[in-house]
Automatic annotation (TrEMBL), chain A:
Keywords: Membrane, Transmembrane, Transmembrane helix
Domain of life: Bacteria
Name the UniProt record assigns to this protein: GerA spore germination protein
TM spans (from-to): 289-308, 363-396, 416-437
Lineage, broadest ranks: Bacteria, Bacillati, Bacillota, Bacilli, Bacillales
From TrEMBL, chain B:
Residue ranges crossing the lipid bilayer per the database entry: none
Domain of life: Bacteria
Protein's cellular compartments: Membrane
Protein name: Spore germination protein
Keywords assigned by UniProt, alphabetized: Germination, Lipoprotein, Membrane, Palmitate, Signal
Provenance organism: Scopulibacillus daqui
Length: 501, 372
């Protein structure tokens, strides 16, 4: 069968331009107006300098490079190289290398204009955002640093938390056009080598033109492309990244993205806020259980309302029957439409709030929540019981600490709603079974996604919905198959030494 | 290609499911009348008069002033005469604005003249219907069920609610546990007979008259509530509430509150013509109302003694009545069965009137309230 929209596309390759020599290369580059190519002369000495004004730091060119070029008498490029107070300079004839380096912010120096030999001096401009608070994963206690768009700064933030020679970093360039620097970070001897190889291979084989963000990478290397569930967690907290690496996970950092992708991940990770580790275990466990209850409530409350009011009036308690019936008596719609209208309203409000600037966004919440809600109830378009349920479900879904998982939860409510209308409670059970079987099949980097629950790994339950005390967490997660499973010495970690004699 | 086909197949099945179930009949909660109480009475000529009560929750624009619509609705009562219970309900549908649905049924009432002719016939339908719960109360009404149901009571305009709460709160106290499930357990069980509460309209109230004894599917007699309910309950099941008043002397009454009683049965010579059954009740109580006394310890002893004697007499009295009537709502036969090999129901009922039943109550009064 041939699909009409699958017609062969015309092959649109970039015009192949391979400059034959350096003159041609510079000529090609000069077509862009931000390219500087000029003769630098002092006394009898002269040389040709070329660079992109926009990606080289002009200040460092003027202050740290140009004054030093002719400091002593120079005869060739090696003399200039010796003069410069800059490391990582390079003399080369390789056209490919010259082109790549110059596009990264290097400056090329030639003795004569048609010399094929170039001295490449790094002078990239470092336009950077300052390290600031994390935006989406805010914490009340704990570190307030967040990743920024520069890869080197991000690696610095991680490495200073794990000052180890074993902290390995592998870097590659991904993207035909964007040539984005992508690096994976892990601890040799803790991270499972198989995981490292898998993720490295998946990144190396990415075939894509432009990598804008780490989420592009995580979408491409994900195990199942059809799943609504995110399989890799991304975080903008260096502390979370470092602690994941210390557990034996692997972090993927992408230049230009303030998010690190952590692989492999289980579903539990998406319901853990890193804040949980900064408070005592009772409170952390309590909050996690509340979060679990909130997610369950958020997914099931509206479908249950629809199912029960449409099919199963028997299960409504007697005292609630009066409230439900009298609140629904004037509503002209069946429960499903009523629920869909309100759910969509909430989704609209969310989307509008997310797209608008912060200050306007707050007003949208008030306008939407109060005005539309009460107005629709007063107009008799929605029952006030459902309004409470939907609003609470919306509120509950915000407790999900991870934005991506929050979006997934937003989405999966609608199949439940439709199933509830079609088959009642059985429909909800069916739909749940469908999602459950999907989750059971799902993997993250080949590791089971719902791991501590299935396959059951009791040792990994220590950091799920009940978080046991930190000094009792002596092993690294089993599903990562870490090469060194022990975090610390068991007996020594349990001791309390008050006075050493 | 195969992958594509799999998708299409999946989509097709999903579409089919939606088509097949899209027209499922729905019971949207505000488009039905939920029948909450139903009553049957004898209409003569082998016909029955059925009455159902469905609360009508306020259909008014109750949404305007925020606070919600908890307005106490009125009830609507429908009656019709027909041959069978199912037919009655079908007949009533023809008068009802919305569909009458039995899923929230809480009380089934049967008129005493009808109950004397046989009960099972009228309960069978409710036993079969999966929509109907098992904690439905069944009661016998002394008088017309229609008059009882078609009335506005001061305590609650919803009569079904009144009936349900009435039986419920009495079960928590002095009345033995009863509902549809218990009834059928007793009815079908071997060596055990069913019992039902008997209600009566008493002016502006409904009153529990007592425990109705059922023998072979028929209502045969009444144990008055005041006299026998408490002793019946403590002999029948463990309980932790209920009060009992005893007479110490001519003008001296005392009320004892049960805070936990347990009953144990022992059987000797189960197969013989004269089986011996020991009912041992262990009762913990507190004195809630008493006249002034000087020595509490002595007083407690005296009260315990009187209470023990009184309860044992009542128990003896009760079992004698039951034996005379040949009914066994306490399930003594069931107890004998558990002690006796090759127990035979037919034989048991022959021996039952001659059985020697000993009621032994151990009273333990723990306190006399917060004042000395």
């Amino acid at each position: 069968m041939k699909w009409p929209w699958k017609k062969r596309r015309k092959k649109l390759n970039m015009p192949e331009q391979k400059p034959q020599d350096i003159k041609e290369l510079f000529k090609h580059m000069e077509q862009s107006d931000d390219f500087s190519h000029f003769k630098h002369q002092q006394d009898t000495m002269s040389c040709w300098i070329s660079f992109y004004k926009t990606i080289c730091g002009l200040e460092s060119v003027h202050r740290e490079i140009l004054p030093y070029i002719f400091k002593n008498n120079v005869k060739n490029l090696m003399d200039i190289k010796a003069n410069l107070p800059i490391e990582d300079t390079l003399v080369t004839k390789d056209l490919r290398q010259i082109q790549d380096k110059m596009l990264e912010g290097h400056m090329a120096v030639q003795m004569k204009e048609d010399d094929s030999e170039c001295l490449l001096i790094p002078a990239p401009s470092t336009e950077n955002r300052q390290v600031t608070n994390p935006e989406t994963e805010t914490s009340i206690v704990g570190p307030k640093e967040g990743f920024v768009e520069s890869l080197d700064t991000n690696i610095n933030l991680v490495r200073k938390r794990l000052p180890l020679p074993n902290l390995y970093l592998k870097e590659t360039k991904v993207g035909k056009l964007s040539k984005t620097r992508v690096s994976i970070i892990y601890i040799k001897g803790i991270a499972n080598q198989e995981n490292v190889n898998t993720v490295w291979q998946r990144i190396k084989t990415i075939e894509f033109d432009q990598i804008v963000d780490s989420s592009t990478i995580s979408q491409i290397i994900t195990d199942s492309h059809h799943s609504p569930f995110p399989q890799f967690i991304d975080t903008e907290r260096p502390d979370r990244t470092a602690s994941a690496i210390a557990e034996g996970k692997i972090a993927i950092l992408v230049d230009g993205s303030p998010h690190a992708v952590i692989v492999p991940t289980t579903i539990v990770d998406f319901f853990i806020a890193f804040d949980d580790y900064f408070i005592t275990w009772h409170i952390a466990s309590f909050i996690r259980l509340i979060r679990l209850a909130a997610v369950t409530f958020s997914v099931f409350s509206t479908p249950l309302y629809v199912a029960i009011l449409t099919y199963h009036y028997e299960v409504i308690p007697r005292d609630l029957l009066a409230t439900l019936i009298s609140s629904r008596a004037v509503i002209p719609f069946p429960p499903i439409f009523e629920a869909l209208i309100l759910e969509l309203t909430i989704e609209l409000l969310r989307e509008a709030g997310a797209r608008l600037p912060t200050k306007v966004g707050q007003t949208i919440g008030i306008v939407g929540g109060l005005v539309i809600g009460t107005a629709s109830v007063q107009a008799g378009l929605a029952s006030n019981v459902l309004l409470i349920i939907v609003a609470m479900a919306g509120l509950a879904s915000f407790t999900t600490p991870n934005y991506r998982m929050g979006n997934t939860i937003r989405l999966i409510r609608f199949p439940f709603l439709i199933a509830a209308q079609l088959w009642g409670l059985i429909g909800i059970a069916l739909c749940f079974g469908f999602y459950l079987s999907h989750l059971l099949k799902l993997t993250s980097l080949g590791r089971p996604y719902v791991e501590p629950f299935f396959p059951p790994r009791f040792t990994d339950l220590k950091d799920t919905f009940i978080r046991i005390p930190v000094n009792k967490q002596i092993t690294r997660p089993l599903y990562l198959r870490p090469e060194d499973p022990m975090r610390m010495n068991k007996t020594r970690s349990q001791e309390k030494r008050d006075i050493d004699e | 290609m195969t992958k594509n086909k799999k998708w299409i197949k999946g989509l097709f099945i999903l579409l089919l499911c939606m088509n097949l179930t899209g027209c499922l009949p729905t019971d949207v909660v505000d488009d039905i009348f939920t029948v909450q109480a139903i009553g049957f009475e004898d209409a003569g000529d082998h016909k029955i008069l059925g009455t159902v009560v469905a609360p009508i929750y306020a259909q008014t624009q109750s949404t305007n002033q925020g606070t919600g619509a908890q307005s106490q609705g009125t009830t609507d009562t429908f009656s019709a005469v027909s041959h069978s219970d199912k037919e009655v309900i079908e007949k009533l549908q023809t008068e009802s604005q919305q569909q009458l649905k039995l899923g929230k049924l809480t009380v089934i009432l049967i008129n005493d003249t009808l109950a004397k002719k046989g009960i099972e016939k009228y309960l069978d339908y409710f036993n079969r219907d999966p929509h109907i719960g098992r904690n439905v109360f069944v009661a016998i009404v002394d008088g017309s069920t229609r008059r009882l149901l078609d009335n506005q009571y001061a305590s609650n305009p919803d009569v079904s609610r009144y009936l349900f709460d009435l039986i419920q709160q009495n079960i928590k106290r002095n009345f033995p546990v009863t509902n549809l499930h218990e009834y059928f357990y007793d009815y079908y069980g071997k060596g055990i007979n069913a019992f039902l509460p008997v209600l009566k309209k008493h002016g502006d109230h409904i009153e529990i008259e007592g425990i109705g004894l059922i023998k072979h599917n028929r209502y045969i007699g009444l144990l008055p509530f005041n006299k026998y309910a408490f002793i019946f309950k403590i002999l029948n099941e463990p309980c932790d509430q209920g009060t009992y008043a005893i007479k110490l002397s001519r003008h001296n009454f005392v009320t004892v509150k049960n805070i936990g009683s347990k009953v144990k049965y022992k059987v000797r010579n189960g197969k013989s013509a004269k089986p011996e059954i020991f009912i041992n009740v262990n009762l913990n109580g507190i004195i809630t109302e008493a006249s002034v006394q000087n020595n509490p310890q002595k007083y407690i002893k005296a009260v315990s003694k009187v209470l023990k004697k009184d309860l044992e007499n009542k128990g003896k009295n009760l079992t004698e009545i039951l034996q005379k009537r040949g009914v066994d709502p306490l399930g003594l036969g069931d107890q004998v069965r558990s002690y006796t090999r090759n127990w035979n129901e037919h034989q048991w009922y022959q021996h039952y009137p001659d059985a020697k039943i000993n009621v032994n109550v151990k009273v333990n009064i723990t306190q006399t309230g917060i004042t000395e």
